[in-house]
Amino acid sequence: MLEKLLHDIEKPGRYFGNEFNAYRKDFSQARMRFVLAFPDLYEVGMSHLGLQLLYHTLNRMEGVLADRVYTPWVDFENRLREYSEPLRALESQRPIGEFDFVGFSLQYELSYTNLLTVLDLAAIPFRSADRTADHPWIIAGGPCAFNPEPLADFLDFVVLGEAEELLKELLQVFTDWRRAGGARQEFLAEVRKIPGIYVPAFFDISYQTDGTIAAIQPRYGDYQSVQKRLLLNLDAESPIPEKPLVPLLGIVHDRLSLEIARGCTRGCRFCQAGFIYRPVRERHPERVLQGAQRALACSGFEDLTLLSLSSGDYSQIHELLRVLMGRLAAQKVAVSLPSLRVGTLTPELMELIRTVRKTGFTLAPEAGSERLRRVINKPVQNDDLLATARSAFHYGWRVLKLYFMMGLPTETRMDLDQLVELCFEIWRLAGEQKHKAAVNISLSTFVPKPHTPFQWLGQISLPVIRGNLDYLKNRMNRRGLRLKWNEPGQSFLEAVFARGDRRLGASLLRAWELGARFDGWTEYFQEQLWMQAFHETGCDPHFYANRERSHTEVLPWDHLSAGVTKEFLWKEYERALAEALTPDCRWDHCSACGICDHENIAPQLHRQAAPIFSGTSPEPAGAHANTSYLYRLHYAKKGDIRFTGQLEVSRCFARAIRRAALPAAFSKGFHPHLKLSFGEALPLGMESEVEELHLTLTENIEPQRILEELNRQLPPGLTVQALARVEKRATKPSLQRVTYRIGELTPFLVHIIIQSWRNRLDERITKKTKRQQADVPLGEVLLDLRPLDDTTLEMDLCEGADLHFRPLAVLIHITKGVQTRMTGSRICKIAMTAFEEGEDVRRTHYQC
Ligand code: SF4
Q1: When comparing pLDDT for 404 and 760, which is higher?
Q2: Which of 330, 538, 575, 691 is least buried, going by the fewest C-beta atoms within 10 A?
């Protein structure tokens, strides 16, 4: 079935996982089966660290199985519908409906329609009220869960804040409830008692005639509001996963992501994450160092990124980076710090970062003028920004990325002009460099978010967004200055849902029915379709996006608390209008935002240098050796991994070599990589038992040992079958006999092919591609064809540099185009033999 479903599907690897380090537990033995769902493509969801942390947390729990699912791209959604196949989880390949819980990670509002797609493909009723004992619990968490109201009808319950500890309590409640054989409503009544769990059905919302909320009425006297969950000790309660998932497919952030801290108290007034994840909690630098080394050894990643909301603010960042680079440089592992504030990106940090490779970073002044930056409480000085840009160019960065927002509160045309002038100044600096440098500007539109000081404000209107964008595009039209922007309609929709209420659920469902999918993807976003959905459901989107709220208005998320008080947020709003700065409590006094009790809950910083920082580290043996030893490998590529392309296979081998700690040789230059050289790429979907690869090591190691080490580290489906030391690469024969086994055909098709192939040998077969044009008699290509059984054939083709026909193309020629009946066939390359010198290979068979 997999063949039929994945035939001609873009990147089939999205749907079968096979990641190295995946748990693959026994489905039938688990007490609680959880599928973590990311409502976006695999490549996006697999890049999200939070989901991976939960995956490891759940799978570490006794009796719990956690699998994953991502929203299928539109082609695969259509294919599943065509074959009436349910959406399945990645590892177990079980239908989503067979799990006990489906837990969605809500990272951005524009993924909401993708959540509905997953439910629909899993045949799970959209509305919580329509689900029965046969259906899983549909739950959600993540930043958007702090106002999940637009999804209230679709979710059974919501996790507010950090879930790691809460999941243990959930397992206990679930086990007891299942043992007691209780009703669905009884489980919800129990689960609400777990701190941090919000059951939308236990709150009734009433509205005033002007559309604003009249009251949020709880159904239980002891369940009036929900407080977020907070981990007090990251190292103990959410340890760094030792064996991170290693994808086969190239994903958006294909590297080891390691969280060094949670929370940020810089207090940027537009930033929701800065308020909902307070207070700051740093991981101990020693844990980070050990975690990084272990996870790199178990994953083989060639890049490491140190994540937090503001990595440059991590107390021991310089020391940590210095020691990390000292230990990782010889292995050519590059380190990046993607979220750096202008003031924290020092020349010393740049010097450290570029040790292996100049990994990218983005400078985010957010606003063009210093005045507006005071409004948003991000007081970056233009001089500091220019000095940082100058240093970056000086240290060899060729591209500088800048991030700005339009439509921030109190913004005027003068602020936009100053934004342009600032970009020009940096662009002029780029122009002064010896090597050509470029400046990339990213522009997005400000979206007021719940639980921030700007939660009462309206977003600027769509015509104003479009007018400002046109103005900036016209003014910044310079060579070497690249401008990217978010589509205004998408920012508007984000603003509608960010502060929406339950009434928006009807519009969301209608938009999905009309065809809305992947709204965060500009090429898929359909503004008109959304406007139609709002119109048909009697909803005014401007009421949510552009309206300013009064201080006393009941907000849809007023019963959900991130710990920071509403009074503090209002005070911050007033300070914004007064352009007053609020200091970071890490370095200054506490601003009394409300989250800390200063006994159990308080910022956790590690300001003392860890003892580990004083030592030096040995470099791995052979890292600088000049001698090199060449090995030739023959390997098989079989099973699901046949849907993985050559680039990914080469990455699999590179990471397996790193995990096996083999002394690999690296290329020289700006981007050093392992010396690996592959033969011709296999077509996607084809298996092979005879692939070839050359590998260079800096030490002479016994081939059998390398073979065994590699096979321990390769993902399922890739197996090294033979390995030998060689002096040089073998030259490819000009022509060779290649044997294929073609299985899973119908007996009828096998009969037709065997009966007719000899009669067609005089016919000409043609092929016209960018790389090759051929028009030859079939007999020069097809050497032999024999049945193995009712449904399997074996075929010998003559192949060379100027003669290369795919086996399926040959079969289609013989059967005169019954292609649809062959899409389910399974092809494996099983042998390659060079012809004897002087042998008239093309005619041998043809003449006899
Ligand atoms: S309560 Fe004070 S110390 Fe704690 S996060 Fe808020 S401002 Fe910082």
Answers
A1: 404
A2: 538
HEC profile of 209-278: CCCCEEEEEECCCCCCCEECECCCCHHHHCCCCCCCCECCCCCCCCCEEEECEECCCCCCCCCHHHHHCC
Give the chain's mean pLDDT.
91
Cα of 453 from ligand 1 centre, angstroms: 15
Distance 596 CA to ligand 1 centre (A): 6
- Determine the residue type at 231: L
Mean pLDDT of 83-106: 96
Cβ 578 vs Cβ 260: under 8 Å? no
Q: Residue 95 in 3-state DSSP? A: strand
pLDDT category at 820 given cuts 50, 70, 90 is: low
> Is the link from the previous residue into 279 a cis peptide, with omega within 30 of 0?
yes
Angle subtended by helix axes 504-514 and 527-536, to nearest 10 = 130
> What number does the ligand 1 atom closest to the CA of 602 have?
4
Token look-up 């700007």 returns 454
pLDDT at 621 over 90: no
Bridge-based pairing state of the strands 261-262 and 256-259 = unpaired
Question: What are the residues whose beta carbons fall under 8 Å from the beta carbon of 479, sequence distance 6 or more?
Answer: none
Angle separating helix axes 285-299 and 646-659, nearest 10 degrees: 120
Quote the tokens at residue 630. 């060449």
Query: For 132, how many CA atoms within 13 A lie in the half-sphere containing its CB?
Result: 2
Largest interatomic CA distance in the chain:
94
Q: Please say if the pLDDT value at position 129 is more than 60.
A: yes
Q: How confident is the model over 692-713, as pLDDT tens digits?
A: 999 999 999 999 999 999 999 9
How confident is the model over 581-599, as a mean pLDDT? 95
Cα separation, 505 vs 490, in Å, equals 18
| Ligand 1 neighbours (beta carbon < 6 A) | 265, 278-279, 585, 590-593, 595-596, 603
DSSP β-bridge partners for residue 104: 37, 140
Contact 366, 385 (CB under 8 A): no
Residues β-bridged to residue 37: 69, 104
Euclidean distance between CA atoms 652 and 84, whole angstroms: 33
Q: How confident is the model at residue 538 (pLDDT cuts 50, 70, 90)?
A: very high
3-class SS at 607?
A: coil
* 241 confidence band (pLDDT: 50, 70, 90): very high
CA 593–ligand 1 middle distance (angstroms): 5
With a CB cutoff of 8 Å and minimum separation 6, the contacts of 238 are 53, 57, 162, 164, 231
The CA distance from 741 to 750, in Å, is 12
**C-alpha pair distances (Å), 66 with each of 52, 169, 249, 261, 569:** 10, 16, 20, 25, 37
pTM for the full predicted model: 0.91
